[in-house]
Amino acid sequence: MPKRTLEGDAVVQDDVQSGCDEGNWFQAEKHRSEIRSFLRGPGNSERFAMIDLFGASGQMSKRWRKAGWDAFAYDIKTSKAHDVTSADGFWALCSAGKRLMTNGLIFGGPPCSLYVWISKSVHKRSEDNAFVGDTGLYKVRMSNRIVANMCVFLQELSECKDFYTVIEQPSSSAMFKMKVTSSLAKQLEMERVWTWMGLFGHELPKATILTGNLPSLPTLRRVLTNASRKQIKNRQKKTGGAKFYTRDADGKVTGNKSLQNTAAYTAEFCTAVYKAWAKDLKAN
Ligand SMILES: C[S@@+](CC[C@H](N)C(=O)[O-])C[C@H]1O[C@@H](n2cnc3c(N)ncnc32)[C@H](O)[C@@H]1O
After folding, report:
1. Ligand 1: which of 59, 76, 257 to mutate, judged by most atoms within 8 Å of the beta carbon?
2. Whose Cα sits closest to atom 15 in ligand 1?
3. Which superkingdom does the taxonomy of this entry point to (predicted)?
4. Where does 4-283 sit in CATH, by number?
5. What are the start-end ranges of the E strands in 16-142?
6. Signed CA dihedral, 41, 43, 47, 53: sign only
7. 109 lines ligand 1 (CB under 6 A)
8. Which residue's CA lies nearest to atom 13 of ligand 1?
9. Residue 19 · residue 77 · CB < 8 Å
10. DSSP track, 129-153
11. Residues pairing with 175 in the sheet
């Protein structure tokens, strides 16, 4: 098995994917009027209560189904037809958006590998390049394309119906520093809530930022105390303490395969998101 290192593409191959050649990537921002007329056209319904965007584990949508709602999970890992970089994949997402009920939730966990601090030496996102990073790198361009298409989808859908959005990223992610994402946050009046996945039963502390416009989003805020950090460590010991990072003699930090598996949400987190949404649905 090839060594997985943050210096190469190998580490991100499971996180950022495209099923089509770069020349055929769908550039959603160039098709706004077409997208808007499609979203406004026939086929709208009140079917899905939530869209689990980039939800390979399907944990979030499962929580909605458990409560009796219909939900739609979209991820290239679970279906080749759900590739947001391809035209067909983008339109498939728009079709799901048309079937999102009024005040339904779109919960998105877009690929973060090429936005986070740990891979900064690869993506090189900084103020100097307006956080678009080293666009000489194919995977950086791909991660930018995925996020740009997600933004257009959410912006255009918001022009057609009322729904809530929450986007999850590790706290060190530079994703919301780009122009496309900050325009999205402004247009959808999204706020940022700092939380910790470890306080929702995750094996790692995982400092997380939730950016969204769900009125009850602040109920998902958590503060990590020394006592809770200890609790998480004890939990890690019990589960065998999977090794997520290695540090070599030069101090270079490398994430391994177990680290990528930690992207799946815990049942406790999904329940907390569900309850926040259900409360807002009732209130509105
Ligand atoms: C950080 S993970 C989110 C996982 C999520 N939290 C879950 O519970 O499954 C990012 C996801 O984006 C998906 N992804 C990457 N490139 C994609 C693309 N072009 N289209 C759709 N999904 C993509 C990956 O397969 C991965 O599951």
Report:
1. 76
2. 16
3. Eukaryota
4. 3.40.50
5. 48-53, 71-74, 100-108
6. negative
7. yes
8. 54
9. no
10. GTT---TTSHHHHHHHHHHHHHHHH
11. none
pLDDT, residue 8, reads 36
DSSP for 149-194, written as a single string: HHHHHHHHHHTTS-EEEEEEEETT--GGGSHHHHHHHHHTT-EEEE
Residue appearing with tokens 């119906």: 161
Residue 112 Cα: closest atom of ligand 1:
1
Cβ 76 under 6 angstroms from ligand 1: yes
**In the chain, where are the structural domains located?**
4-283
pLDDT given at position 239: 73
For ligand 1, the distance from its centroid to the CA atom of residue 236, given in whole angstroms, is 25
Q: 59-66 and 267-283 helices cross at what angle (nearest 10)?
A: 50
- Does the global pTM surpass 0.85? yes
Assigned token pair, 31: 């098709």
Q: What angle do CA 148, 160, 102 make, to 5 degrees?
A: 105
The residue contributing the CA closest to ligand 1 atom 10 is: 111
Say what the pLDDT of residue 273 is: 98
What is the number of other CB atoms lying within 10 angstroms of the CB of residue 266?
Answer: 18
Token code pair at residue 163: 């729904």
What is the distance in A from the centroid of ligand 1 to the CA of 86? 14
- Tell me the pLDDT tens digit for each residue of 180-218: 999 999 999 999 999 999 999 999 999 999 999 999 999
pLDDT for 55-96, tens place per residue? 999 999 999 999 999 999 999 999 999 999 999 999 999 999
pLDDT below 70 — which residues of the chain? 1-14, 240-261
Strands 100-108 and 163-170: parallel
Which pair of tokens denotes residue 96?
């799901």
